[in-house]
């Protein structure tokens, strides 16, 4: 039967394909007494063998599609499955205690996991993670439950998941994954942001996709309106095929602006830059006419792997981006880990409020060797292009001064070593914490630029978790409280002769753009795929008129009244 679910439109476009559920399997079981222990041991062996051949296949595919370092993860899993120190105690337990293989496996594995996790040794902690993964796989085979594995799909699919972490998203195979939809998440969750840069239509925060959709159901992801159609009728299917065609036509229209400057109807130029996560995203920036990179989220370099990236590896990535952009500006943000972006190999303790915790610049100022390695890589790369460095999550001036002092120290060291470093690197901050927005006039005397991170600024100002679909109604970009903070930041920058940009998702939002243009924002940085649409919108707007609009909306009372006023003003 056909049905419809509503969610949050997270990435534009229409995708139609079969459902592929990426959900945690139910691996619960009962402890049982076994009569025929030989049969039970051989059942265990069979599950181990099946797991091994499955892992061999995954490893080969990972090597082909994702490279040697990803394949190494599965190689480590295979080693665990050949280790007699793990396998023999399980068999012994089945034989001597006459218990089922599931129970013997879980008890033994849990003992090893606990032992390794307590060791003060990174390598052993990683082995604990390997054992946990492998146990899950063998247990699934013993129980006859399927473990999903998106890297093995060989046909076009729509991924159905409770949630996707940014590193899950990074590993999606763009060739086969046509769209995704999740139970939880908001428009500014990092998986949603990545879906936009990968041009994969997505709808998040549906609350119920995993409990409603079965493997193989035909799914339409309507990333324009935030709708999911399950097993649609022929009529709905035809309607969506037409919508997909219309959207392609619209994109072809926007594409004509790829080499144009972004100028308002009355001649005011603003810069439209792109947010990227990896050097591979550069192609999208160029194809979409980006006038710079306004935010390079370097944390993706650190994710989906087992150890920190070396200085050399980072240097190569930064250099590639700088060279790829020629003389256009590239704003690189230093490591912003934490919140929904985790690095399991750092083994940071779980926190009650990760978005308010030990993250970003707080972690970097504490774990200075991580920070210094990144700064050195950046400084070395600086002579290959137009680099600007930006610190994330700055909440007070002391943090900025400390970060800048460390940067200066590393620069001095490199120069003493005879390495050339550009003398023209601007140093700025993300304004994404209300205390910094309020104190922008003071910051403006010391920083070279601001980039307003509305994704976080909105969640901290409204006290509404950006990931939580239950409070998404409070996540209000156009609330006059947010608009007034944005104005304070832009005015403070201009008063000191500095520039102000915005790299939160609001910068590419069609309701926000007229207001931001009116407030005098200098640089708008957004998902590359939003650039041409924004350019076509700005070309039709009169900047002077938008100044009046901005004045008017700053005096309004609610998010909704701002939306209404912008629509009226701009004939939307
Ligand atoms: C922001 O907070 O607006 C931002 C751009 O950073 P991130 O989305 O990576 O937190
Ligand atoms: Mg942020």
In short:
The chain has helices spanning 37-66, 68-81, 84-97, 101-118, 122-143, 166-170, 190-197, 209-212, 234-255, 282-287, 299-302, 311-324, 360-366, 368-381, 397-416, 434-438, 440-443, 454-462, 480-495, 512-519, 531-538, 543-554, 559-570; strands at residues 3-6, 8-11, 14-22, 157-161, 177-182, 202-204, 218-222, 227-230, 271-276, 293-297, 329-333, 386-391, 426-431, 449-452, 499-502, 523-527. By secondary structure, the chain is of the alpha/beta class.
Give a description of the structure.
A hairpin with a 4-residue loop joins strand 7 and strand 8 (227-230). The two termini are 36 Å apart. The chain has helices at 37-66, 68-81, 84-97, 101-118, 122-143, 166-170, 190-197, 209-212, 234-255, 282-287, 299-302, 311-324, 360-366, 368-381, 397-416, 434-438, 440-443, 454-462, 480-495, 512-519, 531-538, 543-554, 559-570; strands at residues 3-6, 8-11, 14-22, 157-161, 177-182, 202-204, 218-222, 227-230, 271-276, 293-297, 329-333, 386-391, 426-431, 449-452, 499-502, 523-527. The chain has three domains: 3-23 and 150-251, 3-Layer(bba) Sandwich (Glucose Oxidase, domain 1); 37-143, PtsI, HPr-binding domain (Enzyme I, Chain A, domain 2), CATH 1.10.274.10; 256-570, TIM Barrel, CATH 3.20.20. The longest helix is centred in the N-terminal third of the chain and has 30 residues, at 37-66. The strands form two sheets. Strands 1-8-7-3-4-5-6-2 form an eight-stranded mixed sheet. It has an eight-stranded parallel β-barrel with strand order 9-10-11-12-13-14-15-16, surrounded by five helices. Helices cover 48% and strands 14% of the residues. With 572 residues, the protein is of the alpha/beta class. Helix 4 (101-118) runs antiparallel to helix 5 (122-143), helix 12 (311-324) runs parallel beside helix 14 (368-381) and helix 14 crosses helix 15. The protein has 23 helices and 16 strands. Phosphoenolpyruvate binds at residues 188, 295, 297, 336, 432, 453-456, 503-504.
């Amino acid at each position: 039967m056909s049905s419809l679910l509503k969610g949050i439109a997270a990435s534009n476009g229409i995708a139609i394909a079969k459902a592929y559920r990426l959900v945690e399997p139910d691996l619960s079981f009962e402890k049982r007494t076994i009569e025929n222990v030989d049969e039970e041991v051989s059942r265990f062996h069979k599950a181990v063998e099946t797991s091994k051949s499955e892992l061999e296949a995954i490893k080969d595919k990972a090597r082909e599609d994702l490279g040697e370092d990803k394949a190494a993860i599965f190689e480590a899993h295979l080693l665990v499955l050949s280790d007699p120190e793990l396998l023999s105690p399980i068999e012994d337990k089945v034989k001597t205690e006459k218990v089922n293989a599931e129970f013997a496996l879980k008890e033994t594995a849990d003992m090893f996991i606990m032992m390794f996790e307590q060791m003060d040794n990174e390598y052993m902690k990683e082995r604990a993670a390997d054992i946990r993964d492998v146990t899950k796989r063998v247990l699934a085979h013993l129980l006859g439950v399927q473990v999903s594995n998106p890297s093995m799909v060989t046909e076009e699919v729509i991924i159905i998941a409770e949630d996707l972490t940014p590193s899950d998203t990074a590993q999606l195979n763009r060739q086969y994954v046509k769209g995704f939809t999740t139970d939880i998440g908001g428009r500014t969750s990092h998986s949603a942001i990545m879906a936009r840069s990968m041009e994969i239509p997505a709808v998040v925060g549906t609350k119920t996709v995993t409990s409603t959709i079965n493997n193989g159901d035909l799914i339409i992801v309507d990333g324009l309106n935030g709708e999911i159609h399950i097993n649609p009728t022929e009529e709905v299917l035809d309607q969506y095929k037409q919508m997909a065609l219309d959207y392609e036509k619209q994109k072809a229209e926007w594409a004509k602006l790829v080499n144009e400057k972004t100028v308002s109807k009355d001649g005011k130029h603003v810069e439209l830059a792109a947010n990227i996560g990896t050097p591979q995203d550069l192609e999208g920036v160029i194809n979409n006419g980006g006038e710079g990179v306004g935010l390079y989220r370097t944390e993706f370099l650190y994710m989906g792997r087992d150890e920190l990236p070396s200085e050399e590896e980072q240097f190569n990535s930064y250099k590639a981006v700088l060279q790829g952009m020629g003389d256009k500006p590239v704003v690189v943000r230093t490591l912003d880990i934490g919140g929904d972006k985790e690095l399991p190999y750092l083994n940071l303790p779980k926190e009650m409020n990760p978005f308010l915790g030990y993250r970003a610049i707080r972690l970097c100022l504490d774990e200075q060797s991580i920070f210094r390695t990144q700064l050195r890589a950046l400084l070395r790369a600086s002579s290959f292009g137009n680099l600007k460095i930006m610190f994330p999550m700055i909440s007070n001036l002391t943090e900025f001064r400390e970060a800048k002092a460390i940067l200066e120290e590393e620069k001095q060291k490199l120069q003493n070593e005879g390495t050339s470093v550009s003398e023209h690197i601007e140093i700025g901050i993300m304004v994404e914490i209300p205390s910094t927005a309020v104190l922008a006039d003071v910051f403006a005397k010391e920083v070279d630029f601001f980039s307003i991170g509305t994704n976080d600024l909105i969640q901290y100002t409204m006290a509404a978790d950006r990931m939580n679909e239950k409070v998404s109604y409070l996540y209000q970009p156009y609330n006059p409280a947010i608009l007034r903070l944005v104005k304070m930041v832009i005015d403070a920058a201009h008063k000191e002769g500095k520039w102000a940009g915005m790299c939160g998702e609001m910068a590419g939002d069609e309701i926000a753009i007229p207001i931001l243009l009116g407030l005098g924002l200098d640089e708008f940085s957004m998902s590359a795929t939003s650039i041409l649409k924004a350019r076509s919108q700005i070309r039709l707007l009169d900047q002077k008129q938008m100044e009046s609009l901005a004045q008017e909306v700053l005096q309004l009372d609610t998010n909704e009244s701002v939306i209404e006023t912008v629509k009226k003003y701009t004939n939307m």
